[in-house]
Amino acid sequence: MFRAVLISTVLTSSLLAGDLFVTSSSSHQVQQFDDVDGGAAGAFCTVANPVGLAFRPLQTRGGLSGDLFVGSGSSHNVQRFDGETGEALGVFCSVSNPGDLLFGPGGDLFALSLTEHQVLRYDGQTGEPLGAFCFVANPSGLAFRPLQTRGGGLGDLFACTASSHQVHRFDGETGESLGTFCSVANPRGLDFNPAGDLFVASGSNHQVLRFDGTTGEALGPFCNVANPGDVTFGPDGHLYVTSQSSHQVQVFDGQTGEAMGAFCTVSNPGWLVFREEALPCPADMNGDGVVNVTEVLQILDTWGGCSGCSADLNGDGSVDVVDLLIVLDAWGVCA
Predict the structure, then answer these.
(1) What is the pLDDT of the chain when averaged over all its residues?
(2) For residue 263, what is the enclosing H or E element?
(3) Cut 0.85: pTM above it
(4) Collapsing DSSP states into helix, strand and coil, what is residue 322?
(5) Inter-CA distances, 193 with 16, 23, 233, 235, Å
(6) Cα–Cα distance between 282 and 106 in angstroms, integer?
């Protein structure tokens, strides 16, 4: 009985719609759109000159939604909003001329400072400054390469530099420069697809370019977008791109790059992000739809203190018998 109550308590979570959120510099708002049909849900929150956008990852085992964090170019800070209601929760941290925002695999917030030419790091819970993580000349976009399921470390950080028309790579734990990863004329937003390839918007070429996510080998243009800005892959696997010329978010088939039309209209769109849904089956750590010996091995491989790792299913900072019980309780097909 105790085991059943424990598992039920740990796995309780509020499943959120995966709506799309887009910054509009004209209206000084973050606007919300239905993730299925692009229907406008109105202004989610108001921010003076919004210049970056990130949802804090969901605490999927505790029933809490991730808050929304938005950079304000006018006030030189990052502001926090309730992820479900849009209620303003105050200033989270100060950033001189902020740009793109990103939560790392360990839960810290990474923010571009256009003035300081740095990626700054902040405690993801308190906003405490943790110093400069790495230096990037005229930075314009950030992305973490997805974690390998059993790789035992954080994914590397990738950052666009407009000065050298390149994407640079940094060690995801130390910030050590790992050199130039690929070259892109006027790089802007970037994101990895589920298969691990890197997609980068090129403002000069009016294209989104594709690169091998491991080697940086150029795989050619993926799609054409007039004056592209930010890019992200949606929960449906398709690629969403802000077009600053057409004042739209355009969507492309995530496999072929075929244009699927305008998803929504936004005046002067900037950054975009999908609100993550809580995992319906958190024990399925490798996402193959089955909980089996693979998950048990991952639990054993990361046993002990392991803050932020995928095997910490109850989010208590440690991989232990509770996490193992969650896996055993969900054994088998787990859709």
Answers:
(1) 87
(2) strand 259-265
(3) no
(4) helix
(5) 22, 22, 6, 11
(6) 17
